[in-house]
């Protein structure tokens, strides 16, 4: 049975839904998986120690392991999560020569740690899946010696300020050295194909057992006093992805509708005038298991993205979640929305088209045929289907590499 080692930009302990965690769960149904959490960097440790940075769930776990707590967690059959009992250098904004030197040292330190733990678990001939981990995973291929190396781009993180200095060059190197490249949108595939022709598009899956349109949920307590129509959004509420000014204008012009935002906010949104409107509501963070109940009791679901390099090719997992519950959806028209979801959603580009689309979507709330069509479409995007594409890419590689 093949083993998988996953190194990700994202911690296992993230408080919102995660594509890579769902992928790891699905792979673990057939293969053993070691999910390697990002180690804490020195700058983060110093900020926490001096009171200049928050102690989050993620950083608390990292510090506990550094102080002696067991670094490996058994999650379920075939699935372990590995933390690191050390810190690594903070490299993102260093001069080039120092970045190259210290990032390689980080890679060697992490690689040796992975090798030790993989050997303890009896992992052999493993597949290394790199989940958009641009810096820490750059040199791991030479240190952990995987049988097959896969680079997986599921987000355009090089559009984020922190990654702009070295991210593009690191990602290009990762793509070139990978045996297989996977992306979750055809937009990303076309962009990276010139660097590595052995590239495949997975799209993304949805947890169909959790997001099940046939299950009836009680209305969440904080929705009970919010009258319909409820126009809702679930997920991280952050400036670089969501268009706050568009939302403000739309909510102002539809005072008879209530707009509900379920998820953690960044500082920009927390201070935005959206909070001053009488028909906008922010619930704060909710556990992933709670989200289907919110979605079910929305009349229309939203994904009001900005259009920028970060969102244009991104695969919005929440759209599958909305559709799996059978809800009418209004979303910003991005490449992936047009290519994958146009037939089952209402796409908009500005305030006027959002106003029109929301009102049109509200007219579909009682249409059982449309609801069933949305659910049936979402069910074609299971995690099993998504991961099967990874397996097929591996089979193709094994076959062609023998020739």
UniProtKB/TrEMBL annotation:
One Pfam family hit: Glyco_trans_1_4
GO MF, one annotated term: glycosyltransferase activity
One GO-annotated biological process of the protein: lipopolysaccharide biosynthetic process
UniProt KW keywords: Transferase
Entry annotated with the keyword Transferase: yes
Keyword Ion transport on entry: no
Record-given protein name: Glycosyltransferase family 1 protein
Species of provenance: Bacteroides intestinalis
